């Protein structure tokens, strides 16, 4: 078997990820795209910029790089995270734990 300087190329299959962002983040992303266009003279959509923004963020996170180098903890990323319902105004059941009618303390 040949000893090539170029190793086997990594998986380059793109993955589509759909996210929902809040109004403030959406505006910030659109503002970034506007500044990008003013800086480089080329218009790029937010959709085109986001993968590069995420890659730059991950590349600059030293704690993340260290954790990847040392080995990440095992997680099951195929299973979606469980969402908890946030309490709503007037929702006493979600806002406070169940309270027993008997006292824990006796005189």
TrEMBL record:
Q: Which Pfam families match?
A: DUF2274
Q: Where is the composition biased (Basic and acidic residues)?
A: 68-81
Point to the regions of Polar residues compositional bias.
98-107
Q: What is this protein called?
A: DUF2274 domain-containing protein
Lineage from the top down?
A: Bacteria, Pseudomonadati, Pseudomonadota, Alphaproteobacteria, Rhodospirillales
Q: Which domain of life is it from?
A: Bacteria
Chain segments carrying region Disordered: 68-107
**Organism for this UniProt entry:** Tistlia consotensis USBA 355
């Amino acid at each position: 078997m040949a000893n090539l300087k170029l190793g086997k190329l990594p998986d380059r299959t793109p993955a589509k990820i759909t996210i929902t962002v809040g109004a403030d983040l959406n505006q910030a992303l659109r503002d970034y795209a506007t500044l990008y266009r003013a800086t480089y003279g080329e218009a790029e959509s937010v959709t085109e910029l986001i993968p590069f923004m995420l890659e730059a963020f991950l590349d600059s996170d030293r704690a993340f790089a260290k954790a990847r180098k040392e080995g990440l903890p095992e997680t099951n990323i195929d299973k979606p995270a469980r969402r908890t319902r946030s309490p709503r105004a007037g929702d006493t059941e979600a806002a406070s734990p169940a309270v027993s009618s008997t006292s824990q303390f006796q005189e």
